[in-house]
Design brief:
Number of domains: 2
CATH class of the largest domain: Alpha Beta
Oligomer: single chain
Bound molecules: pyridoxal-5'-phosphate
CATH superfamily of the largest domain: D-amino Acid Aminotransferase, subunit A, domain 2
Number of strands: 15
Structural class: alpha+beta
Order of helices and strands: EEHEEHHEEHEHEEEEHEHEEEHH
CATH topology of the largest domain: D-amino Acid Aminotransferase, Chain A, domain 2
Strand content: 25-35%
Largest sheet: 9 strands, mixed
């Protein structure tokens, strides 16, 4: 959008969003050597920013990227970014915030690069209302999911706990899911055939009143997932982490995806197996209500208003 008034943080300075480009010689562009975070605001306040930054710094530590900023400095820059952009945000809207860190421009290209900075650090915002509504509508009617032939990359190869931009396997899973069932979201299994996660979200089941998650071995340990585990404890909903097979998903009482962008997304079918009659199921609804209380906004109502979505209806 050429007329954006938003500003971004790029390698030590503030630039108009439209000028916030990264060099073609950047190692993130060349080889996907980039770690990142996506945080969102609720009521204009960042949700669990410290958790996201902690994960970002853990990712950098594992990938041996020194971004040259302390976590406190990154926190302050993020708050300043929000402050600098808040006046551009429409009423009722919120921001997503991206942090990207790469080792920077590959050494042999340093002299040719338009900005010869090592490392590359960007932080930028994007209004939630500018995301495509086609996912959000499923908060009312439930999402179809497909377990894809594409598997997750196991932690013994590249650890998915490191939130990184080398995401070709997620793209393959999305392409496959769209071919198998248009409009569906992918669920990947790991090396051993156990359920891992979606391409940008975690998966949770409800079985006999218990919240069940895949063991957090071959998944990104989502900040939203962590918030939901905390809420389940407060609500006295039992929680277990265990190995899950496709069979466990097909026979679950309820299932949902969770992620920073849409928070909680009920799943209505997996591989055409009907999961839950009501959308959301009763336990999912309790978690949605508690999550809304926690963030101080009915996030599903907000999505309905931002994207002009229909009121919730029982899926059939
Ligand atoms: C692969 C993957 N799993 C899970 C998640 C959910 O993580 P969070 O709740 O921190 O957004 C994401 C978010 O982008 C993701 O990319």
């Amino acid at each position: 959008m050429g007329d954006s008034q938003r500003v971004a943080y790029l390698n030590g300075g503030w630039v108009p969003e439209t000028k916030s480009s990264v060099s073609v010689f950047d190692l993130g562009v060349l080889y996907g050597q980039m770690v990142f975070e996506f945080t969102r605001t609720y009521n204009r306040k960042p949700f669990r920013l410290v958790h996201h930054l902690q994960r970002l710094y853990n990712s950098m530590q594992v990938a041996d990227i020194d971004c040259g900023l302390t976590m406190d400095e990154m926190y302050d820059l993020t708050m300043e970014l929000l402050e600098r952009n808040m006046h551009t945000l429409a009423d009722g809207d919120d921001f997503g915030v991206w942090h990207n860190c790469s080792p920077g421009i590959q050494t042999q290209y340093q002299d040719m690069a338009p900005q010869s900075s090592r490392p590359t650090v960007t932080i930028n915002v994007w209004p939630i209302s500018l995301f495509k509504p086609d996912q959000w509508i499923h908060q009312s009617i439930g999402m179809d999911a497909v377990i894809t032939p594409q598997r997750t990359v196991p932690s013994k190869l590249i650890d998915p706990k490191v939130k990184n931009r080398s995401r070709m396997h997620y793209r393959m899973a999305e392409v496959q899911a769209a071919r198998i069932k248009p409009g569906s979201m992918a669920i990947l299994v790991d090396d051993d055939g156990h359920i891992s996660e979606g391409t940008s979200c975690n998966v949770m089941l409800v079985r006999d009143g218990t919240l069940v998650s895949p063991e957090p071995r071959n998944i990104l340990r989502g900040v939203t997932r962590g918030a939901i585990i905390d809420l389940a404890q407060a609500l006295e909903i039992p929680f277990v982490e265990t190995n899950l097979d496709p069979y466990d998903v097909y026979t679950a009482d309820e299932a949902f995806f969770c992620s920073t962008s849409f928070a909680i997304m009920p799943i209505r079918t997996v591989d055409d197996h009907r999961i839950s009659e009501g959308i959301p199921g009763p336990v999912t609804q309790r978690i949605i209500d508690a999550f809304s209380d926690d963030v101080g906004i009915d996030f599903i109502q907000q999505a309905r208003e931002l994207f002009d979505l229909p009121e919730p209806a029982l899926a059939h």
